[in-house]
Specification:
mainly alpha
Length: 183
């Protein structure tokens, strides 16, 4: 009988711990994410969506801009999953690579910009909790995570370019390198 009682208590404690974490987030991270979303939407409205779209089109022509700068700006301004909408400014040949880079950036920027991908913040917070227990600052971790992420996102985009070229040859398909916007 004691085993059943222990299992029942453990089961309830699991949900109580989840509720405690949820209430802590409601008092800390949720308001922060909400304020960041409001700030980003305000900046987009002040700059203008047309100007942001022009920046995206120009970024498509350069690999560093395409896989480092554009995913950063898109993630920062639009957050995940809207960052992927900027892929419409990519030529067909570079859309897979942009998507790969933008998707990776949504994870590696979470520590310093939690509004980008709040649904996956638990991954960073799990790592940060271990860092915090060691007495090390979380901001250093967040900045390093972001910087390493930028480099890895570029490499991921570039490798996807190579993979896309390989698949083009294998399938006998030629993807366009010109941007074609449909209204």
């Amino acid at each position: 009988m004691d085993i059943i009682v222990s299992l029942a208590e453990g089961f309830i404690n699991l949900f109580q711990t989840g509720a405690d974490v949820f209430m802590e987030w409601m008092a800390t991270i949720v308001p922060l994410v909400l304020m960041l979303l409001i700030a980003m939407n305000t900046i987009i409205q002040l700059i203008g969506e047309d100007r942001i779209n022009k920046i995206a089109q120009k970024s498509a022509s350069n690999p560093l801009l395409r896989y480092m700068v554009l995913p950063f700006l898109g993630s920062f301004m639009l957050a995940n999953p809207m960052v992927h909408s900027l892929g419409r400014f990519m030529p067909e040949k570079y859309k897979p690579s942009y998507f790969a880079s933008a998707a990776q950036f949504a994870h590696t920027s979470n520590g310093i910009f939690p509004h980008i991908n709040p649904a996956e913040l638990f991954i960073f917070l799990g790592i940060a909790s271990g860092i915090q227990q060691l007495g090390l600052p979380m901001t250093d971790l967040a900045v390093r995570y972001l910087l390493v992420g930028l480099v890895m996102n570029f490499i991921g985009g570039w490798v996807t370019d190579l993979t896309t070229s390989y698949v083009e040859k294998q399938q006998g398909v030629k993807l366009s390198k010109e941007v074609k916007l449909e209204s």
